[in-house]
Amino acid sequence: xxxxxxxxxxxxxxxxxxxxxxxxxxxxxxxxxxxxxxxxxxxxxxxxxxxxxxxxxxxxxxxxxxxxxxxxxxxxxxxxxxxxxxxxxxxxxxxxxxxxxxxxxxxxxxxxxxxxxxxxxxxxxxxxxxxxxxxxxxxxxxxxxxxxxxxxxxxxxxxxxxxxxxxxxxxxxxxxxxxxxxxxxxxxxxxxxxxxxxxxxxxxxxxxxxxxxxxxxxxxxxxxxxxxxxxxxxxxxxxxxxxxxxxxxxxxxxxxxxxxxxxxxxxxxxxxxxxxxxxxxxxxxxxxxxxxxxxxxxxxxxxxxxxxxxxxxxxxxxxxxxxxxxxxxxxxxxxxxxxxxxxxxxxxxxxxxxxxxx
Length: 358
Hints:
This protein is about 30% helix and about 20% strand. It contains eleven helices and eleven strands. The relative contact order is 0.14.
C-alpha cells in the first residue's frame, strides 16, 4: 500500500468512540482494531432525490473477534458492508466517512482512498467477502477447482498449477468437502456445500478480515448450525476476524463475541453478545430478541415488533423507531438520539433517550 493512502486524519480515527468497547473482546482476549468504520454514510441516488441508506455509522472490528451485525431487512446491513469495501453497485454512493484497515506493521490505510490497483490487490488477500446466495455468486459453468484456483492465480501468479490445485484441495478439506468435488459444477452440489465452497474461496489467501453477508439464509437450521460450527473452528485455527451479517439474532447470540444492531441506517445498540441477550437496552433490540423462541430455559411469549420498518424516503422525525416503540416518550420526537455509553453500563453503547450517557 502506498503512503498516500494513509488517513490524513489519523488522530481523529484513533480517538475512542462509543462503539470501541474493550470489554466486548473477553472471549478472544484481543482488543486491537483491525478494521474501523468511521462516520460512514451511503446514499442511493444523487441530488434532492437521494435516499440515505447508511447514516454516520461508526463500527470497530477487533483482532480475532466475531462482530455480529443484525437488523430487519432494509436496515442497511449489506449496504454498510458493500459501501465499506467499495463493492456497492450504482446508484449507491459513499458520501462520507472513512474505512481504516490496520496492518500488522505500519500505519492504517483508508479503503475509500485506495487506487483501483491497490484495492484489487487488497481484496481477498487482506479482506474477503462471502456473499448472499452461493448459487448466484458461483459461476454456474465453471468447476469448483477452476474458481478456487483462479483466485490464487490472480494474486499469486508465480505459483504452479500443481500448487494451486493442491491448495484448492486443502481448502475444500478445511470446510469439510472431499477432494473429488473439485471437478463438480455448482449445480451438482447441495446448498450447504455451495456455501462451504464460497467460504473456502474467501479463505484461499488467508485474509485477516472476512465479511459474511447472510451466508446461511437459504439453508435449513441443521445446515446453518453445521456451517457456523465449521466457521468457529476455522476462525480459531486461522485467526481471522469476522463481520457476520444476518437478520437472525439467535445465530449471532450463539456465535458472536459482540453484536451491533442496525435500524433505519444507524447503529442503535452495541454490546457483548451475552450482555445483549441477557439485558438489551434498546426497545428495538428487545423486540428482535423476543421474535424467536428460546431453545433452552422456560417458555416465553413471542411478542415481535409491531408496524413496519421506516421508509428511507420519509424518515420519522426524531428517533426512527419511535412510531413502533412501546416506550416512546416526549424527547423521542425531537432529534435522533446519539449513540452513547449509558450511565447504567459504560461498557456498551446505545442510541436511546431512555438511557442517558455516563
